[in-house]
Fold this protein.
Amino acid sequence: MEDRFWDRKIELLPREGLEALQTERLRETVQKAGRAPFYRKAFSQQGITPEQIKGLDDLRRLPFTTKQDLRSGFPDGFLAVDRSDVVRMHASSGTTGRPIVVYHSRGDIRQWTDRVARCLYMAGVRRSDVFQNMMGYGLFTGGLGLHYGAETLGAMVIPMGAGNSRRQVRFIQQFGTTVAHIIPSYSLKLLETFDAMGIDPKKDTRLRILVVGAEPHSEEVRNRIEEAYGVFAVNCYGLSEMSGPGVAFECPRKNGLHAWEDSYILEIVDPDTLEPLPDGETGEIVLTTLRREAMPLIRYRTRDLAMAHPGTCSCGRAHRRLSRIKGRTDDMLIIKGVNVYPIQVEQVLMVFEEVGNNYLILLDREGPADRMTVRIEMSPEMRSRGRGELEALRKKIIHSLRGEILFTPKVDFVEPGTLPAGEGKALRVIDNRPGGET
Ligand code: ADP
Ligand code: ZN
């Protein structure tokens, strides 16, 4: 029965078939979207009709949709069905101003649920698994999204929600949790709790898969998670605007995240010119929903940066593969005139085995010049080292960082547990420069 989540017909559909399906669904989407006030206006101003969609190239006739558009459409400007057909809403955190609201019909929830179940099945999750969901429930989509998917697949779901670390560890042991859904930075933080409780996550638990996502993390961080937990850590990408987690997901070949192209059209565009980029070039991910009813979105600019890997995956799925997310366009820091993404710093740091799992980038200004300080928590092993050795390590780290970011940062080692760490998405940058944002 769970085999229904291995949809060979769709997952193995060759490219041409997939594109024909996308074209058909795009036409339907334009039709549906035209019922929402925002698109009704945009389409009528630009003379767009569903009949014009004859092939995927016609996508380029359609306007982009931005986060700002969603905000200005608050609350119902994008609603394409009668309110009575809406069964749920979610909202993204909306750090500034109005939140972004996403409405779902019954069909939307079913589609999303099946997609998540497909992702989990692909990663190897089965109905015999015990699935501990450590993501926040409520408006955040990580909780309910994976919950519904795992439950529909038939696993036993433990709806823990975020935080309460000791309880998380206790439940992992008491219920023999085999799969957990967890924010990557929190999974590393949780190791301290395992340690304090004298439990080795690798030897003393039944964990075998960790579904990690919701924030950028490097391959090095994945390696650390896999090593410490003795699991396959599978990367899951999604965003509330596109329903939530499960937009793209890794297969066990670990060479990119299959973006489900039967449900979305994936474009990578140059964020400045908005011209589509070929596979292999990094740009902004732009997504068009193909199955959504309550709130179809067209050419939505996610602000997330990644590339699509050229070629096909050896698993046989034709759905294109996204690289790891480099960050959001608004995560880019301009330091001493150089563009830096926090993930670049992480990649360098995590290669050093001695370095602990948490770090923070501090920016301030000294006179006219920007200054970047990287604070790194020491691992227990590092703390037992002599001064000279630490100094040598600091020099090596500075040297590697300079190789990556092209200027010389300051590096400070701090005691374990002293940097901010929560149960949600990690805070990686504090920008104290005048006009800087945190
Ligand atoms: P918010 O915008 O409030 O953070 P979301 O929960 O919708 O709300 O967050 C979605 C965003 O999280 C994505 O746009 C992306 O920036 C980030 N994200 C989600 N999954 C991943 C992942 N696997 N790797 C990197 N970043 C991710
Ligand atoms: Zn694959």
Notes: Residues 333-431 form a domain with the GMP Synthetase; Chain A, domain 3 fold (CATH 3.30.300.30). The chain has two domains: 1-329, 333-431. The CA atoms of residues 167 and 365 lie 42 Å apart. The longest strand covers residues 355-366.
